[in-house]
Amino acid sequence: MSSAAPVVVAALTAALGTAALLLAVERLRARRHRAIVLRQLRTIAGDRGTPAAAPGEPLLRTGPGDESSWMQAIATRVPQLRGAGPLLQQAGLSWSEQRFLVSLGVGALGGAALGFMVAGGGLPALVGGAAGASLPYLHVRRVRTKRLHAFEEQLPEAIDLLGRAIRSGHPLTAGLRMVAEESAEPVAGEFRRVFEEQKFGLPFAESLAGLAARVPLVDVRILVTAVMIQRDVGGNLAEILDNLSHLIRTRFTIRRQLRTYTAQGRMSGMVLGALPLAVGGMIFLMNPEYVMTLFREPVGRLMVWSAAGLQVMGFLWIRRIVDIEM
């Protein structure tokens, strides 16, 4: 048991390093998006002398901090872990950064132990620990993607509702409340938060900046910019919202057409990724000893790992080619 302890420690270290790297990338994305939103809102609100937010003031509320003080200290002092806050809020999860840290540690230990028990070596334990630590991050990313996709699909209807409310004579804040009451989640929750922040006296520019930071979508950024410009220079806000809703629906149509045009490339990536596994499985069924030679000999294992790495690189490359951003 004592010989396994260094392996588990090394696996945990590698897993936490992988998780820290993933969170650092996510934090960089959130910081860049926040800088864009703040720059736009400061430009719009600069003439009024009410900046959207102070340079060091966070736009997002932190999650609940009911965990122990030592976990709070770790989450506060490690810069990479602070990037988990925006990610968790964008996913709509009530997790705190401390709870996320615990899930990373548990996943790393569980993956390292499983890899060591199954394969009985240091490298499998390292790989298992890194994979286990990545599971909570991948789960949060999946929830975030699903939530942002749902928000994007519901946004045109919410903008239409807001435009009808303004056209019928309601102020903008009343229109926000109507959207919060009559829309589905996650649109209802985000607009409800903006309305409540307005009710408690938060500057309107800061409320909209918080919305754009919590929902990092191009359409939301356009909505925030259009509303802020209209509040400064005037104009028919209902007509602006109608044009914006039409623009978003047009983007949806173009995006669906692009998915149709790139379907062949995506299918090629899936076929090329599954073909080696299918051929290897059929050869193993016909002649197991022929295939097992690859795993017994050092050169064979090197060939297998190299082929797997090249397969992953090719799959990611094809996915990058067919992933057209709008």
Automatic annotation (TrEMBL):
InterPro entries: T2SS_GspF_dom (IPR018076), T2SS_GspF_sf (IPR042094). PANTHER family: INTEGRAL MEMBRANE PROTEIN-RELATED, PILUS ASSEMBLY PROTEIN. This is Flp pilus assembly protein TadB. Its main location: membrane. GO terms for cellular component: plasma membrane. The chain crosses the membrane at residues 6-25, 100-117, 123-140, 265-286, 298-318. Residues 159-283 form the Type II secretion system protein GspF domain. Keywords: Cell membrane, Membrane, Transmembrane, Transmembrane helix. It comes from uncultured Gemmatimonadota bacterium. It is found in: Cell membrane. Coiled coil: none annotated. It is a multi-pass membrane protein.
